Amino acid sequence: MPAMAEQPTGGSDGEQEARRALLHQALVRMDGAPDKDRAADEVIQAIDAYMAGHPAAASGSREQPVMDFDHPEAPRTHWVTVVVLGVAVLATIVLAIALAGGWPVAVAVIVVWVLALLVLEIA
After folding, report:
1. Do residues 49 and 19 make contact, with C-beta atoms less than 8 angstroms apart?
2. For FRET with 7, which of 36, 61, 69, 118 sits at 20 to 30 Å CA-CA?
3. Per-domain residue ranges of the chain
4. Whole-angstrom Cα distance, residue 53 to residue 6?
């Protein structure tokens, strides 16, 4: 087991051992207990007593946060996306006007949008 950092304690070594023993006994009794809810309550009480005696363990995470959620990044405008979608809409309008309806227009519009999606995936 790796060595733990020295933490402020909530009492003498004897008190700590008594809390650990109380928690251990509560966990052992929980498995074979006929009343699971009462056994769970005893475990919670034992954990609460242990945490009250170890304020450093109850103080929260000791790791630095990975991300600062108080200052979210401003969303960036992706100009490539705007340009590609604009060109695809313009090409769709031009094809609808220039070609004489039916299947040729449908196929041309599908090709335009498939190409636009491919460009967006690459960019």
Report:
1. yes
2. 69
3. 13-58, 79-122
4. 15
